Each structure stands twice: as structure tokens, then as C-alpha cells.
Amino acid sequence: MSYLKKTLTLLLVLVAMSCGDVLDKQPLDKLQGENLFSNPEGVKLYMANLYYQLPIEDFTFFRQGFNWNTGDPNNGGFAPAMSTDEAVHTEFGDFIGDGDFQWWDQGYKLIRDVNILIDIIPTLDITDDERKALIGESSFIRAYAYFALVKRYGGVPLITSVQKYDGNVEALKVPRSTEKETWDFVLKECDTAIGNLGDSWPAGERRATKWVAYALKSRAALHAASLAKYADRAPISGTAVDQKLVGLDKAAAAEFYKAAIDASEAIISSGKFNLYKPSPTTPEEAANNYRLLFEDPNNAPEEVIFIKGYARPGSGTGHNYGIWYQPNQTANGWPHPGRMNPTLELMDVYESYDKPGESAPLATSATTNDLTDYTGFNASKQYKRFDTENDIFKGKDARMWATMILPGTSWKGQKIVIQAGFIKPDGSSQIMGGDPFTHGGTTYYTYGASDRTKYSGFDTWGGNNTRTGVSFKKFLNEGLNIAPGWNQCVTDFADFRYAEILLNYAEAIAESGTGNKVKGARALNDIRRRAGHKTEIQLTITNVIRERRVELAFENKRFWDLIRRREYHTVFNNTMRHALLPILDLRVTPAKYIFVRVNVPRSNPSTFDYRQYYRSIPGIGANGLVQNPQY
């Protein structure tokens, strides 16, 4: 499928500049179809506005909402990954509050807007093929909107036509449907989209196709299946539970897993998609291929099923990953870079090539219990010594090297210096502070260099340096210096890609015990082969979840994986996230590096409350809805 960087993104620019003039001239419930929809350009304009409102969790998705750069670009460099075990912010603590990850008013605005189009489609003077396509796109958008609502709130009011106010406010109030009914509606809308949409658009526009609708169904069905299977991991009670407005019966898991398997299998068996560069010859080649996939997903039309594009720099049309997350040394004048710090928890998950099929935590000494020792440097401990500041990562999965900038590696032509201190010849430590030290005619600096512009780790100045021991790479463009201003980055975001579908398929088969296990294992191992692994592993849920964590890292999937599998409250239970300190050891000649596992400096423990598995519903005093438990 060909996805060219054109029609939809250009339309989004048009909407950003023009929708105030075109769409706001009269109330939405009085739009005249013959005026707006009587020609293809009017339909494209209205449809582009609907696509723009889609709740795509991309570069401009934050705890506060979607398309956040249009309202306030200065979000402080926070990202959803920092509310998980994937990353921490360089400077500030970050976790989940009751007001975070809301999407209620905006969700129902999109539903109203798409209902306007759905209601008017039968009256339009268009061909049958054009009518089918409009029905399919509208159903896809409505499915996407209700998916974003149900995974936040459980059962919600299902409004399927435009409501008109006739003076009776009570007539506008629609009660919540059960959570099961809401999930069923999402999948039904996906089926309507699948049945009406074609394989592609004539000019390669970035609009929904039947395959995009299948991908949404795969993702949504897996989410619902997990909720049904694992609800008892986090039991809740209250009126909303009693009325089944939240919660699914365990028996529903089977039908949802089947729906996920069938939707995924339809994409896999179509032969229209493949992994980008699926057979590298070396891990180094695999790492570069994986990096290029996210640097520009347009390079991978065989893998990318649906792209959200960014047309040009500027408010509403660009994003800020390029300025917030570059390492300090390549900030290009931006005052607060380096803010995405991948955690030691994520580093530890990646496999090593010599022990496939299991996570390979970074061993800092020969003592196995050191993997849980975060008390800091101990002069009596026999640390492993390494020749360079990244030797400890050698042999680890290629995706780690492509996702993180590791200490001592090159980025944009510079060696990225990440060092937390040094051990003096007498055994005393100087870590994260202190004056330069001269020994044997050489001067040593705590952070590895004399000037703040020449290192990227641990110094607290400006909140610009990683405090976990690595910096961030995924999605960043190594060949481009981003201008130091708001929304200057135009990297596109792959919302659905084939690798996720393979992982959905493998997980649904492993969890349900149904489906073709041989094909499920092949899906899992195809992804690993693209990462340079040559040894196949078994289809188990442990293997699948590990693969999801490394393959989909920082694609805003981890938050919802912890939600749907009801694992958040066990992962975060007075939990500290952790860092790896590269330290130069001057007790030996030549000097070598040791690594120390510690709690992330200047951080506090985090706890996830059961009630946060569902968001609170706003405005219940006016809408009369039953509130979610414990709010």
C-alpha cells in the first residue's frame, strides 16, 4: 500500500487555516448538505477535520489531551511514557493524576461531527462507490472515537445520530450503555468500515482503508479481551459495577480474542504487508533498519498501515519531539533538551543474542543479587570493569541501540558523553558533583568533560541531562538539526504498523489457547528475526509481552498494555524507577568503566490506585450519568 506524504496532511493544513471560516458560519446541526457536501472538495474538507480530531496517541498526545501543540506547545517536555516504567522526565517527577488521560468533551464533539456526516450521506448526490467509501470512513472514525472513550471510561452513552435541542434538556440525556455493549459497538463499527472501504485510495491519500479498519479492530478486540480475562486482578465495586457500566464477564474474553485473531489474520493473510527490511545479516544492520523505520515511516510502506502526517513546521502542523528529546550536546540552541530518559527497567528487558528467549538484565558485578541492589557505589564490591562506557550493552538486542542513545556512542557526528563520576585511585568516589581531579597529568571531570555543552548526563543544570544513564533516540532524525523553536519537527507517526498486528495476533493466540499456534509463533519470531535474532523462541505470553515492550517502546502502547492487563497496580506499588551510572574507575591503569544500579536520582516512589483503571466522568451533575467507582 502506498502512503505518500500529501493529501491528508495538506488538508489538515487547510483545516487549520480555514475551518473557522468554512465550518463555523452556521450551527453544525443546520449545515446544508447541498452546500458543503455537493462537491468533492467540500467532502474532503469536512473529512479532513474529522481525521484531525481522531484520538491518535502520537507525538502531540499528552496526559492533557490530543493535538496538544495547537493549544500550548510548552508542556514541559512530558510524554505518556513517563507515566510508565519506560522513562522518566529529566527534571521533574511525573505520574498519573485523576485528571490525566481524559477525553470526554472532545470525544463527543468528534462523535457529533461524524454523526452529522453519517446522517446526511443518504441525501448526497454521489455515486454508489463514493457513498460506500463515506459510510466506511465515517464508521471507522466513529469506531476510533468510541474506542478511545470505552478504554478510558468503560460503558458510555452510545449516540448514533445528531441530537437536536427542542427545548427539552432531559430528552438529550442518553444513559451509559454497559461496557460490553460499548465494546460490541466499536467492533460492529469496524465491521461496517471493513465492508465498505477499499484496499487503498487512488492517489495514496492517508485515509482509512479496510486494512486500517481491520487494524483498529485487532487493537480494540485485544484490549477488550484482556479486560475480560484479567478483571479479577483489580476488583472494584460500586453502582457502576453493579449495572455493568464498567467491567466485563470472563466469558466475554473468548469472543474478543477470536475477533482479535480474525482481524489480525485478515491483514496477515492478505499478503499486502510485511515487516520493513525483515532479514538483516547483522545486529548492526538490524539496528539501523529499525532506526530508519521511525526516522521516516514513509520509508516503509510495506509495514506502515496508517500514518498521521505532519505537513510543515508550526503550531498545529508540527511537534516538539525534536527539541525536547535530543541529548544536550546536540540541542542546537534549544535551552531544555534531553528530557526523555529511558529507565533501567526498560534496558533490562532487552535480550542478549547469546541467551535468546529471556530478558538480559545488565550485570554490574558477578554477584547475582546486585540486580536488586540500588544503594549506590560500594568500594568493597568487585564490580565488572569495561573498556568503554557502552561495553556493558554489547550483545544486547539491536532495538535497544536504535531506541536509546547509549553512553559513548555517536549521534549527529558527536560522541555523546554520559558519565556520573569517577573513583579516585585511593578508592574514594566522586559521583554527581565535585571539582575536577588531576591524576598522572590528566584532569578528570565528574560528568566526563569540562564544559556543559560537551556532556549529556547527570548534571542538574537546566534539567538538560539524562539521569538514567542513557538518552533517547527513537523517532529522532540524525541527519537533521531541528530549529530551536516550538513545533518545528515534522516527523510522521505510524499509528498502525504491521509489527503491532503480528504481536496482537500472537498474544491473542497465546492467551486464548485457540487459533493457529504455529502461525502465532511465526508472527512472534518474524519480528525477532527483523531485530537480528536467529534463534526461534516458543509462543508464550511471557515472550509476547517482552517483545511488545521492546518492539513498541515509546509508541504510547505500554500505558494501555498495563491498563488492559490490569498490571499497573503491581508494577507501581510504592515503586522507584531505576538508573545505571557509568563511572570511570581510576583505581586501575588504564582507567576502565564500572556501572552502578541506583534509584533514579531526585525521584520519589509512585503508586497506581485501582480506581485509575477507569477515568472519572466529568459533568455528572448536568448529564445525570452514573460516576465510575471511587470518584
Strand order of the largest sheet: 8-7-13-14
Instruction: Output the structural class.
Output: alpha+beta
Report strand %: 5-15%
- The strand count comes to 14
Helix content: 25-40%
Give the termini distance in whole angstroms: 46 Å
- What profile does the largest beta sheet have? 4 strands, mixed
Question: Which blocks of ≥5 consecutive residues have pLDDT under 50?
Answer: 1-31
* Helical run tally: 19
SSE order and pairing:
Blueprint: H1 7-22, H2 33-36, H3 40-53, E1 87-89, H4 105-120, H5 128-153, H6 179-196, H7 210-230, H8 239-242, H9 252-270, H10 283-295, E2 304-308, H11 321-324, E3 340-342, H12 344-349, H13 398-403, E4 404-405, E5 410-411, E6 414-415, E7 421-423, E8 429-431, E9 437-439, E10 442-444, E11 471-472, E12 493-497, H14 498-512, H15 517-530, H16 541-551, H17 558-564, H18 568-571, E13 578-585, E14 592-599, H19 620-623
Parallel strand pairs: 7-13
Antiparallel strand pairs: 1-3, 2-12, 4-11, 5-6, 7-8, 9-10, 13-14
